[in-house]
Amino acid sequence: MEKIVEQGLLYDFYGELLTEHQRQIYEGIVYENLSLGEIATEQGISRQGVHDIVKRCDKALMGYENKLKLIERFMKIKERIKEIDSLSELYENEEIDDKSSYCKKVRQLSAEILEEL
Fold first, then answer.
1. pLDDT-derived band of residue 1, with 50, 70 and 90 as boundaries?
2. d(CA 53, CA 103)
3. C or N: which end of the chain has fewer Cβ atoms within 10 Å?
4. What gap in Å lies between CA 103 and CA 40, rounded to an integer?
């Protein structure tokens, strides 16, 4: 996964666990695409200070994911929902001959989603 996308996902799931100061700096890097210098000037700290905060935030956010696995679970559920959507499209277009196996597969995917929740 591309680093900026990964940072965005981590922040979306765990950003509230950071301090307000950390959130402001991290949002500047991830969402506003500001440079270290721009954030440093805005926050009244050094570029190295901004860099250190971003690294600490990355480490903390990854630590939360390693322990809680919320993003991993979210991605698995998303994939299963995509499978159900694809099966539904085939069903609507009458491209499925065996309706029984279709229903079993949908029930299986639904059960897996419910188990993840």
1. low
2. 50
3. C
4. 57
Q: What is the pLDDT of residue 94?
A: 72
- For residue 117, pLDDT beyond 80: no
Count Cβ atoms below 10 Å from residue 114 Cβ, excluding itself: 9
pLDDT digits (tens, 9 = 90+) for 67-103: 999 999 999 999 999 988 888 887 777 766 667 777 7
For the record, the structure tokens of 53 come out as: 């905060």
In whole angstroms, give the CA distance from residue 12 to residue 96: 38
DSSP 8-class letter at 67: H
Distances (CA, A) of 7 to 28, 42, 86, 88, 89: 12, 21, 29, 33, 33
**Cβ-based neighbours of 60, under 8 Å, separated by 6 or more:** 14, 17, 18
Write the single-letter amino acid at 97: D
